Amino acid sequence: MVKKIYNTAQTMYSRNQNNRGRSNANQQGPSRRNNKRNDHRSRSRDAVSSYQHTDSGKKKFTPRQPGQRLESRPEREERMNELETPSNQFRLDETGKRVSLRVTPDVAYNEERLKRVIADEMRIDVRTINALRIRKRSIDARQRTIYVNLTLDTYINEMPPQLDFEPVRYQDVSRAPRVIVVGAGPGGLFAALRLIELGKRPIVLERGKDVHERRKDIARISREHKVDAESNYSFGEGGAGAYSDGKLYTRSKKRGNVEKILRVFCQFGASTDILVDAHPHIGTDRLPRIIENMRNQIIACGGEVHFNTRVDRLVVENNEVRGVECNTGESFHGSVILATGHSARDVYRHLYASGIAIEQKGIAVGVRLEHPSQLIDQIQYHNREGRGKYLPAAEYSYVTQSGGRGVYSFCMCPGGIVVPAASGPQQLVVNGMSPSLRNSAWSNSGMVVETRPEDLDGELAPFMTEAMADGTFAETHQDINDPTNPLRMMYFQEALEKACWQQGNRSQTAPAQRMADFVNGRLSYDLPRSSYTPGLVSSPLHFWMPRFITSRLIEGFNAFGRRSRGFLTNEAILIAAETRTSSPVRILRDNETLCHVTVRGLYPCGEGAGYAGGIVSAAIDGERCAEAAANAYNKLKFRI
What we know:
23 strands, 5-stranded parallel β-sheet, 640 residues
């Protein structure tokens, strides 16, 4: 009986094994999916149990500070790898002298520590390194750990050269042929210096005062709300760049020698750091002395510089410039480099009335946005402590598209201040600048919207119609609706600046609004502290500024806020209005000769002519116009 039961059990086991084999061979998908689902549920329960057991006490919500973000597992692993592996990425060129490396700021800005790092990598005694000369420097703030990229020359058992650049030699031109330079801004000054190099005598005519006397008139704008139409932030020796941020960064490298422009600045007193930094900057506190040194060099070589001398008329005969007539009653004869700057609206009106070809061009307008500099440092350096001991005040650059137009930051001034930049009565314009140390409590930037001539007949038409309801404005702008009028974009600038002046209590007190209130369409009942010394008044910018501008700024601010946590905040303030980003007019010239297309001997130059956008690009264009004027004279002399 027992044997029979055993045999029966053995037979049943064999059958079950055979059936299981056939079942596995023919098993359908649902059965397998059920097994996997059960396994997944089991693993999920285990994971939840493990999470609750080990991490539940640590995973509490904590608010994130500006610039702070959660660290993912790959980022943690990358950070741990960085701690374990060298980060300096040391490279030595074939000469054994030029070094490229990547170090933290505490090493990059401490020469002794930098020497030790280089000596360790080169396996030499640190005492044999007599000097280091940095050739390129840039900050990499894309990750949580900030690095400084350096390219430098090492001087081992030798001394470095006394100068890091070859100075330009200027000759005596007191008896040379003269060329008239209208305007003593960057374009005019560099045109004059280049003329001296080429053996021509520059006669510089500046409508404003010298750079030191000019400072007094600028102070009166903030103190007394009085704007001298001939001496202000735009007019006077040094032009608009003299009392601006002093940024020397440009993208127009194809148009001229940027390195030479920077070397000339160093020759006249700028720090050689501008030859090194990726975004070079002089500072508004140091520029006046440099500009004065340039003027003294021009005079020492036999050139002339005349202040308080406004050019009122170009003398043109048979489509050729013979000279200029000035408000002083004096006349000067010769070819003319016209470098008046982007605010010389009387010059544009004179050219238009005289039939000298000009055309309207697009500009960008908006507001000046000011944050606490500590907040910008936290955001850009990903650190709630800000920039720390070694890093400079942080910069930012934003750009987006809204409604087919660009919205972007412009002329960012880290550690800077906002200043009044009107150049005439019934105007309110703001600009930004920074001292060399960039050490103020604020950082500001223009936030502007691209505006094109065709917009005047489109979305900007309601604003211009409202502006023309002002009888005084309408009387001087009767041709606003003429589509062939090249001054229409300038008229738009003037309309917006006058509206801003009216909203600012008809003084240099600027209308302002907190950033988040602007985005949400709310009036700010109070305003934070600001660097703008003439004072602020709370104003609904979202209501009275052109809808074309405000709607795009709102969309842009939302985009920038999503990109950088903490940027869109009520700690920031909008100050109106930023309108002088570039010239609203282009004075037409030939691409090859740089001479005006219809008037011989006239060389439109720099930002005011519509061919530059900043100190360096204007300086480059000034040199090019000087070369063109000198070449034209040499060809004429050869023919004679």
